[in-house]
Protein 1
Amino acid sequence: MDPIRVVAEKCVGCGLCVKACPYDAIAVADGKTAVVDLSRCTVCGACVEACRRHQAIVITKRAFRGQDVKAYSGIAVFAEHRRGKLASVVPEIVGAALALRGQRPPAGSARPAGVAAVLVGKDVRPLAQELLSYGVDEVWMVDNPSIGDFDENVMAEVVADVVSEKKPEIFLGGGTVVGRSLMPRVAARVLTGLTADCTELAIDPETSVLRQTRPAFGGNIMACILTRDHRPQMATVRHKVMDAAPRVENPTGVVVDMGHIKVPASRIEFLEFVEEKTETVNLTDADVIVSGGRGIKDPKNFALLEDLARVTGAALGASRATVDAGWIPYSHQVGQTGKTVKPKIYIACGISGAIQHLAGMKSSDLIIAVNSDPSAPIFDVAQFGIVGDLFEVVPELIKRLKAG
Amino acid sequence: MKIVVCVKQVPETANVRINPETNTLIREGVQSIVNPFDMYALEEALRVREKQGGTVTALTMGPPQAADVLREAVGLGVDDAVLLSDRAFAGADTLATAYVLAAAIRKIGGVDLVFMGRQAIDGDTGQVGPGVAENLGIPHVTDIRKIERIEDGRLTVERLLEDGIARLRLPLPALLTVTKEINVPRLPSLKGKLAARKKEIPTWKAADLDVKAERLGLDGSPTQVLRIFTPPKPSGGKVFKGTGAETVDALLTELASGGISLRKK
């Protein structure tokens, strides 16, 4: 059977689906009924959404059988670490897991859902204690000198074995460079679904399946995705979106040593790590960010923003347009294809606010925008906006802040 | 050196807009393009070939018109191109896509190096590369910003992480995903464009590959889109207009009343 079809009796030929399809795969050729061109269709579901009123488009997926979904319980998170430190995303995904546990339907017949952290690597025992302090029930630990910091290939084998043995219902990782390299490899090993870079997670109250919501098409649309029949339900979680788990005073969780898991030989040789230390680049951890867009007109004018960054103690960010134009290195880019940031204050200068930029900064605590175009979308997300010439406004702001 | 580059045809998302009445994507006028990150993968593959010799094959899975992106790759100078197109592939998520791409790479045979862009701009998942490597049982490294050298069957690469650069060495065969910093992609030559027009591009169907039917397309995809929606539009805040001095004054007053200081602590 075709994966997608139009129910002719329900279709009114309104064409909303035609407009919604990002792949030009649906047409109302005879003026009456929509027809899906299966050679173009990717079954993305945009038309189903557009046709919600008539419900004339149906996606049929054959149910997968062969996995005992009921054998899986609890939530696990991948405890990413590098050079002896947990990644800053880890408390956030622990926070997300604890929140999900709170959403489970009331206990009764169901087994209690624990939250566990999967910790694999070399000399990781101290990190296990730190994980317990975030309130996880268990740390599943494989402490082995053969697991290097930069080898997701070995990590994937070990993590997949841990997950296959422990059978968590949900397995979350950080939407970081390492998380987004490791998790697909694990998913391909255990043959389950993986949703990338989620910004919202919730348990469906009826089915208890994890609802995984994420931006797609450069943040233009949101997609809610389910993994119904496969376990674990895997997702990576966008950095700086979820609230971090607070430290608990008297941790009650336990470390489960899984030293029996076989660790394969590494094929990746680590040579060196060169830290990028420049004050202006460490965007993800900055409390204040001053960011520039095409409105600054010339790469030289980043100097003005650097001045503002200096007086405000900010890191320097940039829009994709300025990075693509070669005005500033990629490491400064904020947005869907750059960094996601959540500073206390984000000052956007000459940034129009393309959706892909907003996707990377809109969860900042306070957004201040300076732009000459009053209709710029950046003003929609800014708590405070100044409509004006940034070459007038920014120097004035610097002057006032310096004046004390 | 036998190199494969996986490419994807995507809608040019920078131009995708939302119809405020129907809350749906406006597709009209949106071009199909080669996923921008894949242009860097193609360029890097061609550069490796120029230094090491060998062949570059461009590979894509998609509808018949996805052959367009393969012609673009031929225009840039790749030697061969293969289109994976079958109704059975429709609706594939990243797991099912990686499965089919890996089967095709196995069929091509003797591949030393696979290149991909770090992510596609329509799905933004970046999951297919590591998935293909897992299916092939070869090592992968993501977010490569530089290939330092290739010698004695080993690659030395620089990988871009959030807080710095890792230099790594790994054996061939391997799969790399690349960032935009790795190179500046070339433009197609006139000769290349002519070659692209004449190039025969074979289409491989499911039956041409060593694959299991239940692992293809929508049925082989554990993830399912429940619904797609437009993110709620934020309402905006206070806007100040006037001269530089007036607006800055208004802003600082407003911030001060909320106990916020912009001055460095």
Note: Residues 291 and 317 of chain A are 4 Å apart (CA to CA).
Protein 2
Amino acid sequence: MVWSPPPSARPLTIAEVMKVAPPTIRADAHFAVAHALMSGHGVRHLPVLDEERRLIGVLSHDDLYTAEATDTARAPVDFIAAALSAPPCAVAPGDLVTDVAREMSARGLECAVVVDRGQVVGLFTASDSLALLTDRAAP
Amino acid sequence: MKCMEIMSAPARTVRAEEDVLFAACLMREHSVGFLAVCDAEGRLVGVVTERDLALRVCAENEEAKDISISDVMTPHAITCRPTHSIGEVKRQMLLHHHSVLAVADDDERPLGVISLRDIFEATAGEAS
């Protein structure tokens, strides 16, 4: 058996495969808070929110280590906002996995943030996509 | 400090003619998101990440067994040597915007993998 569903199968939506209620971080948070959140939750991406809890970006562990390597982290108050590398890929819970994966692939992004009525409700990463692929292939 | 002191070894490898499903299972088995791609002689010909594999399959709705690694890998990958200093490795990573590099010998046979995270963790004590 392989990943591709049969033509008659209902396409999966992001809501069915996303990580629900991922940890998030404020744009003005301290560098160390991001490290602690990532290691504490075992995640590599944090949706970054403004003071009204609206999504303004995604901080990846690669962003963190790159910032550390380039000494961006020496200005901790500005750090999170300064380290955001690309506009986030914000999707809706009802969006199809294929469409989201296509956008992530085209933009070279590791994750998509699922937003419902202006609030972050989930996260879908390349790792989730890999798990989906191998789980579907399992006998 | 040299690359060989902190790299993850051995490198997890896959042959270029293997299929995406095989590589995806290998990544999950070893909990890695990066594989060195080798030719029949064991020389590095590219690298492949979990994003290269999974997103391609999900996005195109193709069958993972029908896509070969050579179709999705990044060829001519930047590598470093085990004797390089981690300062030099870090410089290469930042220059080329890579967070992971394959470590190879002079014949381009993969020996290990080094990440920005490895460097961060190895040097965190020095910075404080």
Note: Residues 116-127 of chain B form the longest helix (12 residues).
